[in-house]
Amino acid sequence: MEAGTYDQVRGPSGAQAGWRAGLWGALRIRAYSILTDEALVRRARAKDHAAFDVFVARHRKRLYTLALTSLGNEEDAGDALCEVALAAFKSIDSRDPACTPGTWLYLQGLCTVLKRMNVPLGRYAFSSRVGAGAASSGDD
After folding, report:
1. 3-class DSSP state for residue 27?
2. What is the pLDDT of residues 69-103, one digit of tens each?
3. CA–CA separation, 59 vs 66, rounded Å?
4. In the chain, where the domains are located
C-alpha cells in the first residue's frame, strides 16, 4: 500500500473504528447533557441529531407516561413516542420561541396521542403563545 492511499486516509477500519466512533458518540452525548433545553433546540435546528436525542431523552419519561395513560398499551405508547420525536424534529424550525422547549415537546406528544385516539384535533385549540388563552377569555 502506497503512502496517501484511500485506506490510510479514511482511518482505522473494523472493530477499532467502531470502538472509537462509539466512544466519540458517548462523549458527545455526555457533553450535551450539561446544556439547557434551549441550547439543545438551537443545535437541533442546525440538524444536530445527537443534541435532539439528548433533548428528547430528558422528556422521554413524561411523554411515555402521557402516551401510556392515554393509549393504555405499552407497544402503542412506544410507537407514539417514536412518532412524537419524528414530528418534533421535522417541525423544530417552526417552534414558537415564546413556548418553553419542554412544553412544546409535550404539546407535540399530546397532539400525536390524540391523533392515535382518533380525536379530531380541530376541536382543541392548542396555542403555544403565552397568555393567548387569557386574551380570549372574555373577562373585559
Report:
1. helix
2. 999 999 999 999 999 999 999 999 988 888 899 99
3. 11
4. 37-129
